[in-house]
Amino acid sequence: MQHRVLWAPDAEEKLEKFLKSAADPGILAAAAREFDQHLITSPKEFGESRYDAMRIGFVFPIGVQFEVMDDVRTVIVHDVWRIDRK
Questions:
Q1: In what order do the strands lie in the sheet with 4-7?
Q2: pLDDT, tens digit, for every residue of 11-54?
């Protein structure tokens, strides 16, 4: 069964800022699409568990914090951040 994925307004705004300021926004957009695919098809197998229903996951160059609500087959992305290689 598939889950529906919702991005919290703050997380969506952060992602939009990252896309606007990125040297290559295509890489970030591809990572966001890959996140959505993981979260739609298998959110509990993606990333690492944190507390309660919260998880974190990474697809370079971004990371996300998300909540899996199995009873309503919904995933909410609460936060997103950039990962920079040093």
A1: 4-7, 74-82, 62-69, 54-59, 48-49
A2: 999 999 999 988 888 998 999 999 999 999 999 999 999 998 99
Decide if 35 contacts 57 (C-beta within 8 A): yes
Q: Is 11 helix (H, G, I), strand (E, B) or coil?
A: helix
- The pLDDT tens digits for 32-43 are 999 999 999 999
| pTM for this entry | 0.90
b/e sequence 6-24, b meaning 16+ C-beta within 10 Å: bbbeebeebbeebeeeeee
